[in-house]
Write a structure and sequence with these properties.
5 strands, about 130 residues, 3-stranded antiparallel β-sheet, two-stranded antiparallel sheet, single chain, alpha+beta
């Protein structure tokens, strides 16, 4: 019984590794920018060729473009470490932007009151695949 479970676990792991064979990912956690601003940039580069995506991000005036470009370059460097991937045909397969923890700060207002300021963070994950 135990050996069967162990063998089934090995097979599931092998299938998972085989399904991710032509992919590489990178993650950016706790980016001090709201998800709304980062998602605009993520939607822009989703599905693009890596070279075109980095070029588009370099000329974009949005503040979120710089960290996302750095993240994509990091994923390309991870693909470069793996010798079985062709860097010329890499595309941005998926890019997800999730909400991170919110830093809460307070600012004094009139008549002794205080107002909360939410400083939002984002978690960004990018997956590159061969086209």
């Amino acid at each position: 019984m135990k050996a069967e479970k162990k063998e089934a676990r090995k097979q599931r792991r092998a299938q998972k590794v085989a399904s991710n064979r032509g992919e590489v990912s990178a993650k950016l956690s706790f980016l001090r920018m709201s998800t709304r601003k980062v998602r605009f940039i993520a939607d822009m580069v989703r599905g693009m060729d890596v070279d075109k995506a980095i070029t588009a991000l370099n000329v974009s005036p949005r503040k979120a473009a710089k960290p996302v470009a750095k993240l994509i370059r990091s994923a390309v460097a991870a693909a470069e470490e793996r010798e079985d991937m062709d860097l010329d045909i890499l595309v941005v397969k998926t890019i997800m932007v999730d909400e991170g923890p919110t830093l809460r700060r307070f600012i004094p207002r009139a008549m002794g009151r205080a107002t909360r300021i939410n400083k939002r963070t984002s978690h960004v994950k990018v997956v590159l695949a061969e086209a």
